[in-house]
Amino acid sequence: MVEDDKSKGPEHGDSSQPPPNGGRDAVPRNRRSFGQFLLGIDAFVDTALWHTGSFLRRGLEGYDAFLRRFRARGIWKALAEIGSESVTWGAVGFVILLAFAQPAMEATRSSDWRTTDDFAVTFLDRFGKEIGKRGIVLNDTVPLEEIPDSLVKATLATEDRRFFVHFGIDFLGTFRAIVENARAGGVVQGGSSLTQQLAKNLFLTNERTLGRKIKEAYLAFWLEANLTKQEILKLYLDRAYMGGGVFGVTAASEFYFNKNVRELTLAESAMLAGLYKAPTKYAPHINLPAARARANEVLTNMVQAGFLTEGQVIGARRHPAVAVDRSQDQLPEYFLDWALEEVKKLARRVPALARDRIVTVRTTFDPALQKQADLAVETVLRENAAERDVKEAALTAMTPDGAVVAMVGGRSYGESQFNRAVNALRQPGSSFKPFVYMTAFMNGYSPASIVPDAPISIGGWSPRNYSGGFSGPVTLKNALTRSINTVPVRLAQAVGRDKIVETAYAMGITNELKISKSLPLGASDVSIIDMAASYATFANGGFRAAPYGILEVTNGAGQVIYDHDRDEVAAKRVLPADKVAEMNDILVNVVQNGTARRAQIEGVVAAGKTGTTSAYRDAWFVGYTGNFVAAVWMGNDDFTSTRRVTGGSLPATIWQILMNYAHQDIDLTLIPGVDPEAYHITTKAVARTEEENRPAPRLLKRQTQSVLEEIGEALKAIAPRTSAAVQLPGGAEDGVSAQ
Any idea where the Penicillin-binding protein transpeptidase domain is (predicted)? Predict the structure, then answer.
């Protein structure tokens, strides 16, 4: 049978027969393969998306079905709602905590954070005599294993019994402290772990804020992650402040017991461990009974913690530690604290000091002036504190070039280490007005310029004078002498408050001044040391007087690594000499005829300005002579009002007592631009030799002085080689000598 060729399919036909459409539908094999590959990818993606969507849909349907079946009621529903909200707000809170922690973590970036600002400094006064020590020796002085076991146990029992269990924060201990404090109605237990306290000592300040506590917690975790428990404990023992200006148990052992820390007894260890809570309150050289009572509590803690038995501590209870008697040590604690901070600042720009951290520093400190400053403050407060409702005073005295010679940071260093002379920020009141007048003088005004003392209103604010009335047109000299309020406000309007701020900064104010309507009346906070430095610019003729307390620094090898005269640049002129002379003339007039008459020193030209703030919260007197400058502040730490304490009363009295003593038997330097005779002030010679006659007594009447001179002449005739000294009232001394 013969097959018809037409019945053959394409697969059986002649392969040479051309495809339909002349071959236009033919596709190359490689192009067909690539297209199929793309189609495969598209199909895979579509399928994956479809399956994913189906999975999610089934999951949501299942979750929805579960919720329909889950019908919580009553307490379970409330717990579920609370749990849900807790998770949500917990997440938000965690983010906020991280934001708070970021600034704290910046401190850990320093590669030498373990040793940053650690110095062992021996301080000398300006004459080379030792006045005290500050700082701590680095961590390798006494290894942890050589510190007595009794001291380690006393520390842990008192500060952190679960130290080796927790990871930086003891949540159980914190909860227990909260309960005990609530039960007692006050703070009787601290909730911070030992690691948290170390974090504060290393990186933070003592401010009591929520932000600081959050930073402290994160830094505690960081310390636990980067150090061993033994390293943390060792750092804590070396860094804790132990009162008396010493840091660490090694220094405290030598200071309080005059012995090496390795030799401490159980009673002594308990007394040292009791200092962590409040070193100034329980320091044995200040309050030995309180220190012993606290040590007894520490022994109880050791028994309760299971570290010792009652039988093991009974001996320490019956025979408490005896501390070295330092009641006669009159250490300039506030000055030493400030001087140590100055050393730290200096180390940032003197590489040799940054390397040699065991140094001896000769300071500008004058022990005689410090003693008189302490006496003046204590005498005035003792006589007036109760009656005038004033509890605190602070003082900074310096030479006109800025060398700090005395510093009183508060009435009692034992009760409060806060240095009000340096760290307190208070409103200066009218003592700020010289900045306003000086700015006016540099912008076309003069002391003879007349400005009306009349009512003025700025945006609803109307300043009033202390007297309650107005004087009409007055000269600027008269206005500043009488401390009129409306005149500096008008001057500020005329010259611009921004220029006043620039003048204050140039003269020595370092804290930010708020430009406000009340700025000319001293409404912005300043520090006492800054006010003294600013007025020193008047005393030295117009040069910036940056406060300094370090004259020379030598390392352990005796090499001088810093010398103030050698390494510091010359003072920069910031005020015109002629304008300074005009201001000095006015401020002398304030003391002679104005609000500061109590600051007058017989035979010495003195200048200055009083300041009293609203409601008598702050009282100031900042004054100077050609030899010394001092700023005195009085008030209360809690900003409560005093009983009408003004700058011209108690502060001026303190200033006068100190300066009257400071100018005994010294060569007087005149205030630039001031003629003593214009104020009928008879001063002793500016320069004299040892053989010249000593100045006449300042506190005697002329008749009494004449009698003493006659006695002196008689003594010369009777005993040519005998000399006598007659002690005069008020501390003046008349030397009657025979040649």
Answer: 400-626
